[in-house]
Amino acid sequence: MEAKLRVRRYDPSSDGLAQYQLYGVEMPESATVLDTLLATRERLDGSLAFRCACRSAICGSCAMRINGQSRLACKTKVIQASPHGRPVTLEPLASLPVLKDLVADMGPFYDKIRAVVPWLAADPAKRPPVREYLVDAGRSTKLSQFAACIQCGVCYSACPMVAADDRYLGPAALAKAYRFCHDPRDDAKAERLSRVAREHGLWRCHTIFSCQEWCPKGVNPTEAIQNLKKLTMLKRLGFIRE
Amino acid sequence: MYNPVDAQFQAKAMRAGTAAWALQRLSGLFLTAYLITHLIVIGTVVRGEGSFDSMLSKFESTPFLVLDAGLVGIVAFHGLNGARLILLDFAVGLRYQKALFWASYVIAVGVFAAMVVAARNLL
Ligand code: SF4
Ligand code: FES
Fold first, then answer.
1. What's the pTM?
2. A242, part of any domain
3. Domain count along chain A
4. Is the CB of A219 under 6 A from ligand 1?
5. Tens digits of per-residue pLDDT, B57-90?
6. B72 touches chain A (CB under 8 A)
7. Which CATH class is domain B16-122?
8. Is A241 inside a domain boundary?
């Protein structure tokens, strides 16, 4: 079949205006959007810029907007996006600066993840256990959903609140914060909560659930955010002390 | 048979979460506009019984009765969806958010229909 792409082209070294360019390339029916982009770059236009690495929805680098919806290009077939053979529109992720064509600058997204202390912070004054740290099965199952995040930025691009407030931490960073706040080995809960329970943090979420709808890895950031809100409110109301 | 049309692409327009968010704001704006109108209408009472009565008689026509029924429906939606949002903020019913939205919506439409019937009996 002929796979047609309509790609938003932007070259920072030119006059700075973005344009849409049409490509048509012969592909098998099983081709993903990423396969088609790779074939287009090989056969038609070597100047086309996009990111990819794993081609199997693991690295998170091929996230872009496909027909206006934030998705992984390697997890979307052309025939899914365009069952009637119309050109598939490709644009870079929303709410992020564009470097070139489909390549968005992920800097602001990573900075916000970094801002929530996204690692296990053990209290140095505490004695480590003699044997391994134990995490019970129930807790680890609950956390595994949030640990599955590949930091692709799909949720960030799909969230209307991120679009409205560029200081909002966004779904991925808040899901990360929840993942570590609920890890029994962690000692930085208070610090992390104080960083996220702010105007441009938790309270910016209006439960629109776009992040959860679009996440390609089945993460539910809204659930994380709402649980953090609950934790914060119960603390402020004096029901939990820590 | 393999259906190449992905459900995600089909549901292009709006998901329940987005619809709930937009409707909550629209209904809020409507209720604010209603409240202002209401205060102005009630305010005419200070100008005496005559002007109050003549103002009220303007609202006795069918279109205004339908709007009144709509008002009750919108209050029902705004209130029920508001309760849904409070529950969600306490992380209750997150997995049922869509069902809760549709329930608020259907109940509100039902309330509106019941009010239209009641208004017809008034006429
Ligand atoms: S939560 Fe999902 S959509 Fe968001 S960055 Fe992680 S994997 Fe991507
Ligand atoms: S190329 Fe790695 S997620 Fe698509």
1. 0.90
2. no
3. 2
4. yes
5. 888 888 888 899 999 999 999 999 999 999 999 9
6. no
7. mainly alpha
8. no
